[in-house]
Amino acid sequence: ALPIYWGDQLTEKQQEKAFEEEEKRHYENEYEIARREALERMKQEEERRKQAEKDRAEILRRQMEDLKLGELEAKKLKKEQDNLLRQQWELEEMEEERKKMEERRKKIELGRFLSRQYNTQLKWRAQQIQEELEMDMKILSALIEKEDEDELLRSRQIGRA
To answer: Cα separation of 80 and 73, whole Å?
Structure first.
């Protein structure tokens, strides 16, 4: 038989061992809890990182889309500007052509006006010359008639003498 103190010692040892095992389980549980919490934090951090990456990718995609739209808008505006410049050039050409035609029309009208004025002056001058010629003819007729009368008188006087 073992002495009593051995039994106490044994119980003490068993208690100590049980306490150590309890403490070990307690630490293992704390370690496991800490490990799980760390894993959970790591998992959440990874999810946040993935979400942030996803968000950045979405922002980048939108920026690229906006950039493409901007480029399309810029191309559209450039095309419109080119069209407007071409139309402006065509309008300027048409205006220039219109001015040339207006100038030609004015020259033709001026030519007609000058021609009519010249013809009117010619007719007026011809009429004036005609009237002067008729006057000269009357004067000449009157002179000839007078000369004939004078000749007749002379020949009568010569005949009487």
So the answer is: 10
DSSP three-state, residue 78 = helix
| Cβ partners under 8 Å of residue 10, min gap 6 | 2
Closest listed residue to residue 24, CA positions, set 16, 103, 35: 16
Query: What span, in angstroms and rounded, lies between the C-alpha atoms of 156 and 153?
Result: 5
How many Cβ atoms sit within 10 Å of the Cβ of residue 116?
10
- What tokens appear for 25 in the block? 């389980």
Q: Where are the alpha helices (DSSP H) in the chain?
A: 4-160
Structure-block tokens of residue 105: 């029309």
Joined together, the tokens standing for residue 87 give 């139309």
pLDDT at residue number 131:
95
Residues of the chain where predicted confidence (pLDDT) is lower than 50:
none
User: Assign residue 53 a region: left if phi > 0, alpha if psi is -120 to 50, beta otherwise?
Assistant: alpha
Q: How far is CA 4 from the centre of its chain?
A: 111
Cα–Cα distance measured from residue 140 to residue 129, given in angstroms and rounded to the nearest whole number: 16
Which residue has 């029309």 as its token pair? Answer: 105
Note the pLDDT of residue 30.
Answer: 84
d(CA 70, CA 73): 5
* DSSP conformational letter for 2: -
